[in-house]
Automatic annotation (TrEMBL):
Annotated AAA+ ATPase domain residues: 24-245
Database matches in PANTHER family: RUVB-RELATED REPTIN AND PONTIN
One BP annotation, GO: motile cilium assembly
Pfam family, one: TIP49_C
UniProt protein name: RuvB-like helicase
Classification via InterPro entries: AAA+_ATPase (IPR003593), P-loop_NTPase (IPR027417), RuvB-like (IPR027238), RuvB-like_C (IPR041048), TIP49_P-loop (IPR010339)
Subcellular location: Dynein axonemal particle; Nucleus
Amino acid sequence: MVGQLASRRAAGVILEMIKDGHIAGRAVLIAGQPGTGKTAIAMGIAQSLGPDTPFTALAGSEIFSLEMSKTEALSQAFRKAIGVRIKDFDSVCAPDGDDDGALTLTALKKYEVGELQKRKEVVHTVSLHEIDVINSRTQGFLALFSGDTGEIKSEVREQINAKVCEWREEGKAEIIPGVLFIDEVHMLDMECFSFLNRALESDLSPVLIMATNRGITRIRGTNYQSPHGIPIDLLDRLLIIATSPYTEKETKQILKIRCEEEDVELSEEAHTVLTRIGMETSLRYAIQLISTAGLVCRKRKGTEVQVEDIKRVYSLFLDEARSSQYMKEYQDSFLFNETQTAAMDTS
């Protein structure tokens, strides 16, 4: 990653606490302007945790579905982010086989001290959601592959929680608190935030990481405004990591890395112009111009993107500010604009 040193240090502290298991049931909020690397920080945490730690990512808009309730969708996401490492021992006798060419006869070779046996430790790592699905119906194992899990009764989850806690006390299982990442958390409504408040108090709760790019805005489902569109009582539980805008040097370095990823050669002058565009408009807009400028360069049989290629695609594709200015100038020519609506209301 490039830049965001303070945010990355804070994420590093969170990462170490997750590895040590000292932050289970906690919540972290990554807040900042669009295009400042909030999702990248969360994905970096996921990559650093490795494959053994469960990591579940979803957007706030994915919670709303006609197939299941909002709380059920959040419950399944929470259960997916909690792993259970189950240990089992298989006693395998060492065989002594005689091969006659067509059939292998296997017999136990006995010694004076008794039969030679081996104990093999088998470790299975599954999520609580997978256990829920398997035990929720007669053919629940097939539902894991089809994805048609449906709503799971709370009684089934309570029985599974009790059994997992029993295994943990007996040393047969180990609970692995994972990470649940909710992007665009401001899209959740008041009922979802109330559920998160209660779920974080549970004994079996993962680390909750949320990201938002909103300032003081209305909480969805209410008429009240709050920082980041999150209720104050939930904000009080969060560790908030703030991301800052990139500097010109960092923007130039990010664009250089992106050019290498997309296999586009830029001249030094074109790189400087593209960096200035990224500072004046947005980093995402400048990144999108790389591939289009490379296509224009190949169209003219060139091998290196020049300033003229950047200027051409800049004139063809509008950024957010120029698009807004265009709408203000020609809003009367568009259908259902606010000016026409206001005129109809006054008449």
